[in-house]
Write a structure and sequence with these properties.
Distance between the termini: 40 Å
Oligomer: single chain
Number of strands: 0
Number of helices: 8
Order of helices and strands: HHHHHHHH
Shape: globular
Low-confidence stretches: 100-107
Length: about 210
């Protein structure tokens, strides 16, 4: 039990650390409210579960040792993060070019499935999630642990991450009501775009 609780603590620290998943969830909530943030978090959770199942089944280890496949995943992740960054910067630029008054409230697109899909792709194309499952889980459960044990730990990682994201959605939701002004939204989009491009660059450069 002590070993398991240590893993939970590590999972919590990992989930709290800023990353693409938390940034995307924060942006979705601030710009679209709690509901959109929750949909984004749900997409991330599904992707986390998929990555955990892949790692627990042993397929993840094969992918990690297949250099070509791993590079494809890495570049797909970097490309998608860059795409999200481009979308955010474009949105900020369009808000500027509309010439709307600073206090104008802009209508928000509320497409739940687009939020789910963005969250899913943001996580599933991040090779660091799979690498963590493969590299860290055996250190807690032992090299000869069964699939059931590995899956329990992997799903725990997903659950802890989901709890942290839900908390983030709740906190950001409080502020979302007062962050709908065009100037504030433009700042959020612009900052998000720059940071996402930074994540993309770091991922692309890693191991190059």
């Amino acid at each position: 039990m002590t070993q398991y609780l240590s893993f939970v603590a590590l999972a919590a620290l990992l989930a709290i650390a800023p990353g693409p998943d938390s940034l995307l969830t924060l942006r979705s909530t601030l710009l679209g409210g709690r509901r959109r943030g929750a949909w984004t978090a749900s997409g991330i959770l599904v992707a986390n579960i998929v990555q955990g199942v892949v790692a627990a089944s042993g397929l993840g280890a094969l992918l990690m040792h297949a250099e070509t496949v791993f590079r494809i995943i890495k570049w797909a992740g970097a490309t998608y993060l860059a795409y999200l960054g481009f979308l955010a910067i474009r949105a900020a630029w369009r808000m500027r070019s509309t010439g709307a008054a600073p206090d104008t409230k802009l209508p928000l697109r509320r497409s739940p499935w687009s939020a789910v899909w963005q969250g899913f792709l943001c996580n599933i194309t991040n090779p660091k999630v799979l690498a963590f499952n493969i590299a860290v889980l055996p250190q807690f459960v032992g090299a000869h642990a069964g699939v059931a044990t590995l899956l329990t730990y992997a799903l725990t990682l997903s659950a802890v991450g989901a709890i942290v994201l839900v908390g983030l959605v709740g906190l950001a939701g409080v502020a979302s009501r007062v962050l709908q002004r065009v100037t504030v939204r433009r700042s959020i989009e612009g900052a998000t775009g720059v940071v996402m491009l930074g994540f993309a660059t770091a991922l692309a450069a890693e191991g190059s």
